[in-house]
Write a sequence for this structure.
């Protein structure tokens, strides 16, 4: 994995983490919860980044 | 205000970590069988900060390492006192116990599989009807592909759920509950799937504490 992709990995991990902490987990009566956008929808925007990372890795392999 | 991090079988084990905003973690006895892990925090206003969300997650992560069965709590607004929290747990005691048994010794893995969407680029080349027919075929074959991928990975899982084509590029979005010893076989199955499908992008995250399998009846939304 190239170093250029690291910020993206962190971004993905953060999205997954926030989704779990705010949208998943046990809820009991009396505790009001908040929720964030459907994470699958959030990923639609990320797709562009993921595609560019994939291309980058392929290019790097070709150069090597 | 009491902030709830997780529920565990009694006696819950505490981890050497601070709670939100440097608060001190404590075990609050909910019933004869279930404990909760909480800390005293100031009454939250508005959305929780990113720091608070990360602190909640860090506490859950540490607790999951020392409690064999742990139900991570969703980030909430908190409880005024221990009695209110104990009542809330008592109300759903049997469901909480069943959920604890369900996640015992397990971790959660998240997977998203992306595909390029050839349908979009072909749209201009055919009539509306032809386009719709070919699009339908693509959706069906994507459905099959996603189903096959999911089945091959779910074999190692105790439980799983998945969503196919949540968006045109997101072929599969799935979550797996894996007993710890199954992590190796799962990784192997994933590596095989990645090798067989170089045209797809696999994004796998985890192992997470079992947030997605901690929800009890009626919570899944």
């Amino acid at each position: 994995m190239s170093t250029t992709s690291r910020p993206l990995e962190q971004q993905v991990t953060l999205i997954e983490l926030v989704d779990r902490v705010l949208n998943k987990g046990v809820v009991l009566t009396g505790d009001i919860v908040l929720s964030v956008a459907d994470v699958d929808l959030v990923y639609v925007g990320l797709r562009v980044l993921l595609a560019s990372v994939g291309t980058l890795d392929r290019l790097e392999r070709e150069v090597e | 205000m009491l902030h709830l991090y997780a529920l565990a079988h009694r006696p819950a084990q505490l981890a050497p970590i601070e709670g939100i905003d440097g608060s001190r973690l404590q075990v609050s006895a909910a019933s004869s069988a279930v404990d909760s892990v909480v800390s005293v925090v100031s009454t939250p206003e508005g959305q929780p900060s990113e720091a608070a969300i990360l602190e909640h997650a860090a506490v859950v992560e540490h607790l999951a390492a020392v409690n064999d069965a742990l139900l991570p709590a969703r980030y909430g607004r908190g409880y005024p006192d221990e009695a209110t929290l104990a009542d809330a747990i008592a109300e759903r005691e049997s469901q909480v116990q069943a959920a604890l048994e369900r996640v015992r010794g397990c971790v959660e893995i998240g997977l998203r599989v992306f595909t390029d969407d050839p349908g979009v680029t072909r749209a201009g080349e055919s009539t509306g009807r032809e386009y719709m027919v070919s699009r339908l075929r693509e959706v069906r074959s994507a459905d099959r592909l996603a189903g096959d991928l999911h089945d091959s990975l779910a074999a190692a899982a105790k439980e799983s759920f998945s969503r196919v084509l949540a968006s045109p590029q997101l072929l599969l979005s799935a979550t797996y509950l894996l007993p710890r010893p199954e992590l190796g076989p799962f990784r192997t199955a994933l590596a095989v799937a990645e090798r067989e499908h170089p045209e797809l992008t696999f994004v796998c995250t985890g192992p997470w504490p079992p947030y997605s399998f901690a929800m009890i009846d009626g919570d899944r939304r």
